[in-house]
Amino acid sequence: MTIENLHKLEEIRQALNAKYFEREKEVEGILVALLARQHMLLIGPAGTAKSALSVELANIVQGTEYFQWLLTRFSTPEELFGPLSLQDLEKGIYKRNTIAKMPEAHLVFLDEIFKANSAILNSLLTLINERIFYNNGTPVKVPLVSVIGASNEYPEEGEGLEALFDRFLLRFELDYIANETNFVSMMKGTGQNYVMPSMTMEELVQLQSLTDNVPILDEVYKTLSEIRYDLRDEGIRPSDRRFKQLLSVLQAKALLSQRQVVKVSDLVILENVLWETVDQKDVVAAIIRNHSHDVVSQALYSIQEEANEIYYSVLQENSPEVGMEATQKMKALIADLKKLKSDYQSRKTDIDGLLDKVTSMEHEILNKILEPWYFDSRNEKRGSASTFFKM
Description:
54% helix; 15 helices; single chain; 5-stranded parallel beta sheet; 9% strand; alpha/beta
């Protein structure tokens, strides 16, 4: 039965990837959150499939109670936790009727999560972190598995939302579809008629139990200690609690990859776990990739850095010679990316995303080279080298 569940898990991942373009990381993240019983935050503009993924997940896991709500500054406790029972109130009992509300849900999607106000914040924090809801002062254990929070923006400092932000162990940024082929496929509705596989709550519980028992190699613990040391050198200090919690994420990632042990390569998912502020994301990603032995991520990071350096050198050096040299270097990077895509088909979306960016940068450099020539030829005269690359 367990082997069948693992196969079903992989079928679900493949089906979600086929239906939602350029969302491989988020699909992995949401399944990891489910297996590890952790919470996940999705940051991105409207229309990037944040709520769609959550609803899809609730439909996939049959037998779950699902709760979804859009928070505003004026949201009340009744909206999330249920209205007060009038019958009990007459007896002086301050008890909420939680039927069909968040305290009785397995999966929860809260849109605009950072609009949460002080009236609901404390109860929300306790429910998310401790899986307990205080009803009439009595602690009630809730069946909550995962909360998927979504927002168009990060919380601003000084709003008292730091604790809520910290409750989400997994954090992902989403953007609109970048690849043209994927965009066209999305517009055509490719994959929308795909029959989505499903699993029962019982099967999910079995997979969660299996996740808890995935062994972690000593090498992984040692590497985590090295990562912690490197992060501290950069002034980034995730809490001991966060490091302890991330072990379940690593176990879930290994299981999702159909493996029976956590390896160092699984650490790559921690670039979505260990940053605290937005300006730390790139630093954390570089440190994680350096330690996780993720060949593709390291290569993509290196190519991205080199492409940026080439591009900005053209903007700073107003000469056609620099432009031509930059074009040749960009062509070499594009060739490297195509080779990488050929060797690592499973990372096609990540590679295609950067390939589109580098190709666009190459075209922009070419346009800057050809544009002065075009206008000079129409005027039947040549511009001087100093007229090239003017902004």
